[in-house]
Amino acid sequence: MALVVQKYGGSSVADAEGVKRVAQRIVATKKAGNDVVVVVSAMGDTTDELIDLAEQVSPLPPGRELDMLLTAGERISMALLAMAIANLGHEARSFTGSQAGVITDGSHGKARIIDVTPGRIRSALDEGAIAIVAGFQGVSQNSKDITTLGRGGSDTTAVALAAALSADVCEIYTDVDGVFTADPRIVPTARQIPRISYEEMLEMAACGAKILHLRCVEYARRYAIPIHVRSSFSQREGTRVIESIEGTDMEQAIISGVAHDRSEAKITVVGVPDKVGEAATIFTVLADAEINLDMIVQNVSAASTGRTDISFTLPATDGQTAMSALNKVKERIGFESLRYDDRIGKVSLIGAGMRSHPGVTAKFFSAIAEAGVNIEMISTSEIRISVVVDGDDVDAAVASAHRAFDLDAEQVEAVVYGGTGR
Ligand code: ADP
Ligand code: ASP
Ligand code: MG
């Protein structure tokens, strides 16, 4: 008997019909002789709607209360799913993240899992029941307050439970047939990738390909949990995320895909005095505010003024916090002003084969130029090149890079079964 962890995203359980369809799929897995643990997200766009609601009553809702509100979304879907399964004649028990033993740190809105103690899930399985767990939530070890893991975090709940329960596989069910060479919502000719390494999937997720939550891939890699991404709307095989595709019948592609991210903002600290220690002070202030930075660029200082500009990107959701933290040290550092721009997008090219193929960067930049798009910032790693562009140019830049690296499928094979792309 195998232990299977299945995660169903919001678009798979968007309405009562969806919940019933997913329940059928779960029961089929159980009937095939498996123990089944299910992680479920909030229905459709519930989480976004709850955030909108919170913002209507307060421009900056307290983190503790926002987490309490958002976790309600997953509570609704887990209970409905358990009812739908009961209606098919099987026992299902739903559990909140806290009941399932998902213990986190106390960082509201982006809590990290520090331990998983799934005693109640084990007991449910031992008694022959299907366990349904609310995704994206846990309980803080110290304060005992309810926390959330960050947007898209149900994927991470699933992998963390799979690791704690020594599951045989973690299946992530969503609204497309697996991982594609680009987001099929903006590149209809994107190709489905049958197998991808953790390393490449990590870069894709880090660069905004929201098909998998970044921390879910990190966790899976650390605990060697095989992930199987597929659609809950079809029977297609999907994508397997594995250690390495060496030793399989697949040839290593030079480029695995193009990812994009519209969730970041850019802050420019204008007129920073060009002297030792200024960058250290700026970035210490941001680190103390617990802000994760992405790209950083410091311009050459103008000889006439002895001042320079420093720009960096960060999650737009941290924009207000960063601006006020920096404004507080304006006098001390002596910079002139701050500029904030959240109408940016990041486009990234990812591929392990880049290491051994010179010329990839030049070809990527040419493709961006051919699309008539101006590059604002650049950063690279061994297996990735990223550029920041105007938000309105993202789609054109992605499509052009995808074409330039011959990633387009001859016939359109990507199907988007549901979801609003929100
Ligand atoms: P779920 O609600 O199931 O968690 P998400 O919306 O979080 O679904 O993730 C699935 C979406 O990810 C797809 O509908 C697609 O638009 C988007 N996506 C972005 N990049 C990719 C990619 N490279 N391959 C597949 N889907 C992608
Ligand atoms: N419902 C949460 C969100 O929309 C978590 C998830 O879907 O993974 O971000
Ligand atoms: Mg998701």
TrEMBL record:
Residues 267-343, 349-422 form the ACT domain. Keywords: Amino-acid biosynthesis, ATP-binding, Diaminopimelate biosynthesis, Kinase, Lysine biosynthesis, Nucleotide-binding, Transferase. Catalyzes the phosphorylation of the beta-carboxyl group of aspartic acid with ATP to yield 4-phospho-L-aspartate, which is involved in the branched biosynthetic pathway leading to the biosynthesis of amino acids lysine, threonine, isoleucine and methionine. Coiled coil: none annotated. GO terms for biological process: diaminopimelate biosynthetic process; homoserine biosynthetic process; lysine biosynthetic process via diaminopimelate; threonine biosynthetic process. ATP binds at residues 7-10, 174-175, 185. It catalyses: L-aspartate + ATP = 4-phospho-L-aspartate + ADP. Substrate binds at residues 47, 74. Belongs to the aspartokinase family. Gene3D superfamilies: 3.30.70.260, Acetylglutamate kinase-like. This is Aspartokinase. GO terms for molecular function: aspartate kinase activity; ATP binding. The keyword Cytoplasm does not apply. It comes from Actinomadura craniellae. The lineage of its organism: Bacteria, Bacillati, Actinomycetota, Actinomycetes, Streptosporangiales. It holds the Pfam family ACT_9. Pathway: Amino-acid biosynthesis; L-lysine biosynthesis via DAP pathway; (S)-tetrahydrodipicolinate from L-aspartate: step 1/4; Amino-acid biosynthesis; L-methionine biosynthesis via de novo pathway; L-homoserine from L-aspartate: step 1/3; Amino-acid biosynthesis; L-threonine biosynthesis; L-threonine from L-aspartate: step 1/5.
